[in-house]
Amino acid sequence: MKVKERTIPLRILKDEALLRNISPKNPAYPVIENDYYRRKAGYWGETQIDYYLRLLPHQNKYYILNDLRIPFQGSFFQIDSLILTTRYCLVIESKNIKGILFFDGVFDQLIRINGDTEEAFEDPITQAKNILLQLKAILLKLIPNLPFDYIVSVASPKTILKSDVKTKKRVCHASSLVQKIIELDDYYTDDVIQTSEIEEVCNFLLKLHSPEQQNILEIYRLMERDILKGVLCQKCNGKMVFVNARWICCHCGNGSQDAHLQKLKDYFLIFRPSITNKQLRTFLEIKSRRVAYRILTNSQLTWSGEGKGRVYFAPTSLVPANMNFGEEEQYEI
Predict the structure, then answer these.
(1) Does position 319 have pLDDT exceeding 70, yes or no?
(2) Looking at the structure, do residues 232 and 210 belong to the same domain, yes or no?
(3) Do 62 and 208 have their domain in common?
(4) Does the residue 331 lie in any domain?
(5) What CA–CA distances, in Å, run from 221 to 16, 27, 28, 31?
């Protein structure tokens, strides 16, 4: 039973919006692009957890929460997937790294082997252990006797996994997750809490969940002047002008009634979750206040204030929940 669905991380959407709205010649462009694909790789890996968990038998006995960001002692920790049952609590840490991976339980490190070259990564097993420590501390009063466990899920079946004796039971390909969970079901045989207590824990964690809010311009040290103004044609990337209730491309003549919609979404992702008539006119490069008013009202945005003081607010969901990422090989780290 999915209590909290997985959604596309806001940071991916913000990166994508920037890539549409800054010049490829901008020094920050390759930095943003690299971050964008790295995060897409991570997200694709997490979606593989969802894909395989749907194969679990008796779905109703597993309470699944995805993408939790929980405050703890002045900071936050994140959980890719959390499964609560009456017998145990399971944390799943997802990784999407290609190549030959060796999980070293002696020095707590992950090593990628490529011929004679070895590259170290942060140890996902240690990450999972640290998550358990924090989660246990938060849930101690609610479920003091429930056992906690963890699994590291490696997304791509093409990744070769190697480990020492200490770590081999803790790591698996995403395709083996269900078998691992069935093994845990056989190991943890006694009910420790009631279903009602699981629901209480789920509600508690959902209230604690704090989505990250980031100023994307500050992160990449960009200024407002770095963001390109105006609406671009989807066919030739030329500038468009608004004429007779339509956007017309000055280069190829392509016409559209809603070419501004993506640009408006990008504004909310890049700048702020609200916009005024004047800000829209500047961003879309249109002169008419009345035209800007029609665009904003036709976009069905909520608003407050009157006249020049009216402010329009971003929708709670900027994009569809599903997004096509193509083949997974393109997005491995």
Answers:
(1) no
(2) no
(3) yes
(4) no
(5) 16, 10, 8, 11
In which domain, by residue range, is 64 found? 2-214
Tell whether 173 and 239 lie within a shared domain. Answer: no
- Alpha-carbon distance of 313 to 210, in angstroms, equals 20
Q: What is the CA radius of gyration of the chain?
A: 24
Contact call for residues 314 and 273 (beta carbons, < 8 A): yes
Q: What span, in angstroms and rounded, lies between the C-alpha atoms of 146 and 187?
A: 13
pLDDT for residue 30: 98
My answer on whether 245 and 308 are in the same domain is yes
Please give the pLDDT value at position 234: 87
Contact indicator for 309, 22 with CB cutoff of 8 Å: no
H or E stretch at 198: helix 195-208
Residue reference for tokens 């990784």? 95
SS3 132: helix
Contact 154, 48 (CB under 8 A): no
The DSSP string of 3-37 is EE-----HHHHHHHHHHHHS-TTSTTHHHHHHHHH
Report how many domains make up the chain.
Answer: 2
Contact by Cβ (8 Å): 202, 84 = yes
Same domain, yes or no, for 174 and 72?
yes
Q: What is the pLDDT of residues 252-285, one digit of tens each?
A: 989 999 999 999 999 999 999 999 999 999 999 9
Instruction: Please classify residue 18 by burial: count the beta carbons closer than 10 Å to its beta carbon, then call 0-12 exposed, 13-18 middle and 19+ buried.
Output: buried
